[in-house]
Amino acid sequence: RIQILFEALVNVHDPMNNKKIWSLAIAAGCAAGFEFFGNNRRIDLSMEKQRLPLHPHDRQAPTTSPWLRTASCKSIPADTSSQEFIADAVEVALPAVVSISSYKKFPFRGLQSSAGTGFIVDAKGYIITNEHVISDFREVAITLSDQQVLYGRVVAVDSKTDLALIKVEANSDLPVIVMGDDKDVRAGQWVVAIGNSLSFSNTVTAGIISHVNRDLLRDAQIVPPFGKNSKKVGGSNYIQTDAAINEGNSGGPLINLKGEVIAVNSLSIKGDIVQNINFSIPISEVKRFLREYGNGNNSEATERSPYALGIKGTTLNSDMVRFLRSQNRFPEGEVGGVFVHRVVHGSPAAAKGFKFGDVILRVDGTVVPSIDRLNRELSAKGGTVVTVTIYRPKVGIMNISVKPMPV
User: Fold this and answer.
1) Which of these, 114, 264, 106, lies nearest to 180 by C-alpha position?
2) Which among 162, 182, 358, 372 is annotated as catalytic?
3) Cα 292 to chain center, whole Å?
4) 266-302 burial by CB neighbour count: b if 16+ within 10 A, else e?
């Protein structure tokens, strides 16, 4: 359906295809309809090729983190002799768990929504979640455990490890989860998942750790989107659990019986013959992420203001690249980029002559395979002049110097 939509979008601007434009566009619209994008990444085993994003595992986690010192939720001794040992752990962590909702209007596809989970790591309003929960969204609605709704902004992301940091403004200090340690976790250990499962907030499920340091590529032959030979391939440090994780759980905490978060729920495998195979990002990755994006102060984080060129673009997948190349609208030797389908009037892109049909390939020499990566590269430059490499049909590859605008 996405491919049909994309071809309709390209052909709409082609005067040679007037007779087939509207029938194709109408068919694409009917085929696409409105879609709800669940945030929990899923793999259907009926698919011929399995694809999962993996992340590096060779980074050493920090031994200490300033974020740990602000925890207001207090961990408890793990005592399985009590019949309420799971409830006791949940009672500790639940106040710091939040539900995340976001909405955005897209051309041809109408309103796209995303629902997920997060947990508070700093009393001043910093929240951890998965990057794919807030991908392409800058502002999100945060519902606290007491049903209070706050509005937050994305201040840092790391797509390699699928982590993101959100900041909300609150009138008082927020409850903070206790971050545990994943180095001593063992297969068979009791764990509890808390999240916004299928938009049912504060849903609790329990299970055990099924495996530690799970390498998805080696053990399940799951190939990441960027290919086997990419330097980004990793992912051997996933924690596998049989605690139920459904759409909406992404970004939520996996806690131990002390009520401490030891991992971030992220991936699940779904299929008719599959049950309870789920994967979580170890808390050591979260600590590393916070140390990289934090500045050592308990209540502050390095915030990168978003910048943009002023274009509306589409991330090109392999099918779209193949189609554009067949129309002589994409260069040989390139594998992806951002297709420009609209230039905002009065924007830096308009001033520099960007046009419909341009394909953005690189920013200051860095490949930008997606609209999200483009935005992050621009924001990382802090509003300074950048060189954007584009491909323009019938012209070729061009380098354009442009100063992005703050969003």
Assistant:
1) 264
2) 162
3) 18
4) bbbbbeeeeebbbbbbbbbbbbbbbbebbeeeeeebe
Residue at token pair 């994006």? 293
Tell me, yes or no, if 280 is annotated catalytic. Answer: no
Whole-angstrom distance, CA of residue 111 vs CA of residue 115: 13
pLDDT digits (tens, 9 = 90+) for 328-370: 899 988 888 999 988 988 899 999 999 999 999 999 998 888 8
Tokens (6 digits) for 170: 């609150």
Please confirm, yes or no, whether 162 is among the known catalytic residues.
Answer: yes
The residue from 132, 158, 210, 268 that is catalytic is 132
What is the pLDDT, as a whole number, of residue 50? 33
Q: Are 157 and 131 in contact (CB under 8 A)?
A: yes
What distance separates the 2 farthest-apart alpha carbons in the chain?
76
**Is 370 one of the annotated active-site residues of the chain?**
no
Identify the bridge partners of residue 163 per DSSP, sorted by sequence position.
158
**Phi then psi dihedrals of residue 7, to 5 deg:** -65, -35
Cα–Cα dist 248/265, whole Å = 10
Size of the chain, expressed as the number of residues it contains: 407
- Alpha-carbon gap, residue 126 to 34, rounded angstroms: 32
Question: Which of 26-35, 338-347, 386-395 shows the lowest mean pLDDT across its residues?
Answer: 26-35
CB atoms within 10 A of CB 90: 18
Rounded to whole angstroms, the Cα distance separating 316 from 318 reads 7
The one-letter amino acid code at 310 reads G
Cα 97 from Cα 249, distance rounded (Å): 11
d(CA 390, CA 398): 5
The Cα-based distances of 183 to 76, 108, 194, 198, 213 in angstroms read 19, 47, 21, 31, 10
Give tens-digit pLDDT for 159-182: 778 889 999 998 899 999 999 998
Q: Which of 250, 266, 280, 284 is catalytic?
A: 250
